[in-house]
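User: If only I could read backbone structure tokens as easily as an amino acid sequence. Those tokens are not coordinates but codes from a learned vocabulary of shapes. Could you go through the record with me and say what the backbone is doing? Here is the record:
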Amino acid sequence: TFDSGSPSSASSEKPGNIVYNTAGTFDIITVIRNQCGSDSINREITIYDNIKPTLGKGFDICISAPPIQLPAASPTGGLWSGPGITDVNLGVFNPALAGSGKQTVRYTINQSTACPTFEEMEINVIEILGFNAGPNQEVCKGTILKLENDPNFPGGNWTGIGVSSSVLNSFDPYGLAPGTYPVTYTYKDPSGQCSM
């Protein structure tokens, strides 16, 4: 017999498809009969109602960003795992440890039961490679220099002494004494998470 099960009893040796509609611990009683009489064995079965956890949306992060705590998961009490996870309880993610590219982390609840459930989140770790502001340049007084940036990294801005227009990327030496003047090209990737 199957306490709270449907069907509540069966006569076959290996009954299947016993359905439990509620979670809990229930008795299973097996009765054996032969010409010498009968005997019974009592066992318990635990039915879990493990829901699937809910996570926030995946996101982009720069590989040089400091470790962050991932958005709160529901229900609480689960464990995080995957590349870049440095604290399984708090869900701390280190992008440098995970490495560049799309990384999948997992949040699992009810790990100690027979029916753990999990949900996954994709984190895109962005790394800007090959970035270079270009070679040093020279300019004569009275001449405006067009600052050239790497075409692989468009849309950045030039800053520094003598930069007359960060939009037009021009350097004007007017009013400057002869010498060397450092200028900086700052680029931000399309996601807005990484800049160099």
In short: The chain has a mean pLDDT of 86. Helices lie at 95-98. The longest strand covers residues 24-34.
